[in-house]
Amino acid sequence: MQRGDGADAFTHLGPAVRRALSERGFDTPTEPQRRAIPPLAEGENALVIAPTGTGKTETAMLPVFDAIAEADPRFGISALYVTPLRALNRDMRERLDWWGEYLDLDVDVRHGDTTDYQRQKQANDPPDVLVTTPETLQAMLTGSKLRKALSDVHHVVVDEVHELAASKRGAQLTVGMERLRELAGGFQRIGLSATVGSPDEVGKFLTGDRPFEIVEVDVQSKVDFEVVEPEITDADTRLAGKLATDESIASHVRAIREIVASHESTLVFVNTRQTAEALGSRFKELGDPIEVHHGSLSKEARIEVEDQFKAGEIDALICTSSMELGIDVGRVDHVVQYGSPREVARLLQRVGRAGHRSELVSEGTVIVGHPDDAMEALAIARRAEQGEVEDANIHHGSLDVVANQIVGIVMDHGDVSARRAYETITAAYPFRDLGEAQFREIVREIAGNRLLWLEEEKDVLEKSSGTWQYFYANLSMIPDEETYEVYDISSRRGIGTLDERFVVNFADPGETFIQRGEMWRITDIDEEESQVNVSPIEDPAGEVPSWVGQEIPVPAEVAGEVGEMRAVAEPQFAGGADPTAVAREFTARYPTDQYTASRALDPIGKQVEADQPMPTDDRLVVEGQGRSVVLNSCRGHKINETLGRLVSALLGQRTGSSVGMEVDPYRVEFELPSGLGTSDVVEVLESTDPAHVEALLELAVKNSDSLKFTLSHVAASFGALKRYQGSSRFGADRLVAALEETPVYDEAVREVFHTDLAVPETADLLADVQSGRVAVVTAQGHTAIGTSGQSSGREFLVPENADASVIETIRERIRNDRVILLCCHCTEWDHQTKVRRVREEPECPECGSTRVAALNPWDEETVSAVRSREKDEEQERLTKRAYRSANLVQSHGKQAVIALAARGVGPHNAARIIAKLRENEDDFYRDILEQERQYARTQSFWD
């Protein structure tokens, strides 16, 4: 239901609040206030969707403050303000406190860091309005004094509701609100959000499918985007030399500097912490007043840069999603998004940080540097301007949340009938379809884990000795990973954090990494204190590892629009249209300039010129050369991931060999065993029964690391992990076997499917392929579009008993990989070739030296650094790495070239591999494979 009226919304409020409005200088309501205050003042449930900076907090709280001020005095808490942020925006806290003081109402905050004294005070003398988190609400519902205080709740405001709707935290909160409803009776529910793609669905999530209003302020009139690929200038050439980078990256740095210089306060959003650190180190080298902000920095470091930015001491912050949810950094007048934002909602949320109450248009620039990136950003910017936001990805029926909340309900009541617990949980929208049989299975599982007693005859659930301990250890549905503090032993200060998986899998003494834009070497790891001790290094001799944060998945709708853009441009190029004219047409539809559009369209023109088929939204193109086969599919990350796993599993099963797989939103690249090619991939697409996709994928993910990791966290939520003494001692494979026939395993599979895959959509795609609605065509060799994807890591799906085949696949792949050979003696000669063509003892044809480095084919920066006469710190580091590579090749010949050509193996790790004594050559390749797997695992730990 939607409604919008109330030209003078403030007349719906009582005299005390209207006097306060005059005192605050609020003469005219903002558009959200004008439209939302009338229904909210009448006590209706509502979802309020409006850009950041349009007064959403006051929109919700003015009618709530008014209702409390006008009501008879109550003993308990009248309103809850639930926020996903643990640390409430300081500006918002000050505003709420002001309203409370003026209206003689007590406003307080409660979260995990609230002192015992303050908690006791709140229980004995409850505030009128309590600001809290979803997790703290769980704890409050079980305290005897607080339950009495909560029985007076008449209003619940949920901030950033879109963020909660897509998480298990949110699913848990929906049941928490139903538990609160049993205690307090019906209460008004108000949701606040800057961006929502499916308002009706999110409204049902908020209210439990009870009646509600949607108040949505049109977003397209509030944002202004420009997508830009900077043209390379002479200044960029000079800057590239100074920063020891290529001219393209230098142009990006220069473009960001120009935007920052022309605005007072700029946020520069990036998609991973690694990118934030890399970009931040460039600006630090240039001496620019720009700092880095992300979740792995210490709390003190984050607050320090937030305060500096707010005070105008620094001009810009380079930040990740840590800055999306309303952290108070003062006024922002421009937002830069570096690289495609991946999602419409993310772009709107980020650019929405710019602008303020009196200036409602938020301005943002998206800087791109790759055709895929540019086309994707154009599609997202257009969709954002039209308000075409992705649907909320609600966790429907997450069974570990059910287990957690059954224990919570038992904590509420002491003992409770199973029927009452079932009805409470299924009143929450995400659990409306939970069946009784499945509910009883979960009850038996957690009773078996001694989280409660089940009186079968009476059908009653009772507290057990383990109930209390489990509940307070599992207030949060955020996976409980240990965090290690990173401690600089030279300055004796904390600099940030690393997560447990990263420390366990990668962090050994002597390893190096970047944080806060600086390089560090690990001295030792203190397990008892959960601390990684480090020392700063200015010029590491070993290879500095590069970690790529887990990619934000590009939705199918965005990738599909990129396919549509190709379909529009293809006939124009084929008809002989001038590329400038084609680009000009795109600038009329998309917010970009002629140069950026031309660069984005370049691979399409090349594809047409080569007379190769064009991958579009309704055409899949399978291309291949040797063992490398690319399935071009404009279907987004999740469908392509699902297709990739399906094809890999079926072809791997057929041959008993590993299938390498690499996925991006527009293609799936396979590395097939000998004897397989494009026709085999086409055959899987055309013959696999869509009805069998789910069952085939469940078999395929059974042995995957993602399922095992997810299973360990789900098992903890069910209280099952303690039976097996923790996954590290018991073993992940045995954990899978032990839990396979339980709700724990079912939930782990559901979560992997929900988070990583798109099973129904992939089944629909196969049905469309087999009906002819989507064409599948093949191309000979590799095409311009097929080879223009950006590498995003590689996963090997290894069947059991396939060891010999795996080793052969690795050997053949590396033999066909390319390397740059560079003479580090005369530095005049370099040559790119395949590994198999490298001589057993490489030498320079110019000077005869055997001091020849083997570098990755994209590592032109290192070649330039070695040849540079005037070296800065970065060039020195690259030069030393090249010399280490050359020393290895000089000592070990082609064996060193092979090790250095493997993925994620630099000189440091290559030396380790070569140094091991072995019985035969196969063991050498096994060690390379293990290092590649290690690299694939550690890639995702940085973000």
Task: Give your account of this protein's structure.
The chain has 943 residues and is α/β, with parallel strands linked by helices. It has 5 domains: 9-219, P-loop containing nucleotide triphosphate hydrolases (Rossmann fold), CATH 3.40.50; 222-385, 3-Layer(aba) Sandwich (Rossmann fold), CATH 3.40.50.300; 399-473, Arc Repressor Mutant, subunit A; 612-797, no CATH class; 807-939, no CATH class. Helices cover 47% and strands 16% of the residues. Helix 23 packs across helix 24 and helix 28 packs across helix 30 (732-739). The longest helix is centred in the last third of the chain and has 20 residues, at 636-655. The protein is globular, with a radius of gyration of 29 Å. The model is unreliable at 1-6, 539-549, 725-729, 790-802 and 939-943 (pLDDT under 50). It comes from Salinirubrum litoreum. Residues 37-214 form the Helicase ATP-binding domain.
